[in-house]
Amino acid sequence: MAIAPDAQPETGTDTEKSKAARPRHPEKAHRADTPILRKPAWIRVKAPGNAGFRETENIVRDNRLVTVCQEAGCPNIGECWAKKHASFMIMGDTCTRACAFCNVSTGMPKGLDFLEPERVATAVARMGLNHVVVTSVDRDDLADGGAAHFAATIKAIRAASPTTTVEVLTPDFLRKDGAVETVVEAKPDVFNHNLETVPGLYLTVRPGARYFHSIRLLQRVKELDPTMFTKSGIMVGLGEKRHEIQQLMDDLRSADVDFLTIGQYLQPSRKHHPVDRFVEPSEFKALEQIAYAKGFLMVSATPLTRSSHHAGDDFAKLRAARVAAKGY
Predict the structure, then answer these.
(1) 165-169 and 87-90 beta bridge pairing
(2) Which backbone phi and psi does 76 adopt, to 5 degrees?
(3) Closest Cα to residue 208, out of 100, 97, 72?
(4) What pLDDT band is residue 2 in, cutting at 50, 70 and 90?
(5) Cα separation of 114 and 4, whole Å?
(6) φ and ψ at 326, to 5 degrees?
(7) Cα–Cα distance for residue pair 218/192, rounded to 1 Å
(8) Residue 100: its pLDDT value, please?
(9) Which pLDDT tens digit goes with each residue over 23-32?
(10) Binding residues for [4Fe-4S] cluster 2, per the UniProt record (predicted)?
């Protein structure tokens, strides 16, 4: 059931108590604990807390919004929020999937709040964002997977902040006919959908998804709008092999994907998929060079790379790279 226009969503202490009362990952409770490896020096970041961070925190709270920065436990939150950059997660804080790597709460989500797109747009305008990333939880419970809500959010941002470029990071819309078309029709500047890992690890890492469906989704975006930038990302350190990563790159290039991100997987808890190893910075550099050689216009490959990290700066570089390579 959707929230009525005059309804008052849960806020403050009541919401915090409600979230604390339910297990964050009920599907993982039965799993045996796995050790959490000590992070190497190159993966450590400073704790957040300056004035810019607090201002961003206030804007997010005042507009009753959810961010992937908080829900996914992103290590870059201190850096990004200090610069008044935040990635908004629409359609609630509870995902219908149970991916083994993810820190977002799982369970049955609440109904959509149809006022949320306007609140996201208000926050974008208040922050003065030149570029914004909008992502979501998986909403397998919705007939369109939340595609219309993505479109409404894009349109609201366009109205409130016409010069802001919009990047969407969508679910896979598995078995949701017409969903990709709905989002593409709303004209985001970047359509991002992450593969997350190599196909051989999907059953243990991303069991609710289908690798080649995700490849097809990205290919379909280009069929609908050849000028729309497409993007995808993976994590390393889950147990993948170098040749599997290179094959994944080829699969993405076969779908004409423009931008690839590669970052280190970090284990949120002892119940999550363990870190197989911490990949050295030199290996990320080598993967970046391979990806460029395969034809990607833009590659970001570092231990701390995340889909939305430096997304605005990277989008400017992406546009420049296409002009240089293709003339438009």
Answers:
(1) unpaired
(2) -95, 10
(3) 97
(4) very low
(5) 8
(6) -125, -10
(7) 8
(8) 94
(9) 778 878 788 8
(10) 95, 99, 102
Tell me the residue type at 118.
E
Q: Please give the Cα distance from 305 to 28 (Å, whole number).
A: 26
Amino acid identity of residue 261, one-letter, is: T
* CA dist 301 → 57, 127, 139, 170, 291 (Å): 28, 27, 29, 21, 9
- Any idea of the CA torsion for 123, 75, 89, 3, to the nearest 10 degrees? -90
pLDDT digits (tens, 9 = 90+) for 70-122: 776 777 777 786 776 778 999 999 999 999 999 898 999 999 999 999 999 99
Fold (CATH) for 44-326: TIM Barrel (3.20.20)
Binding site residues for [4Fe-4S] cluster, as ranges?
69, 74, 80, 95, 99, 102, 308
Token pair recorded at residue 122:
């208000």
**Domain locations along the chain:** 44-326
pTM for the complete prediction?
0.89
- The most distant pair of C-alpha atoms in the chain lies apart, rounded to whole Å, by 55
**Vertex 52: Cα angle to 48 and 54 (nearest 5):** 65
- Evaluated on CA atoms 221, 232, 76, 25, the torsion sign reads positive
Contacts of residue 223, Cβ cutoff 8 Å, sequence gap at least 6: none
Q: Would you say residue 264 has pLDDT above 80? A: yes
Specify binding-site residues: 69, 74, 80, 95, 99, 102, 308
* Distance (Å) of CA 277 to CA 39, 74, 206, 236, 274: 10, 19, 19, 9, 9
Q: Output the CA–CA distances (angstroms, integers) from residue 163 to 125, 191, 296, in the order listed.
A: 10, 18, 26
Contacts of 226 (CB under 8 A, 6+ apart): none
Confidence of residue 49 (pLDDT cuts 50, 70, 90): low
Q: What is the pLDDT of residue 133?
A: 94
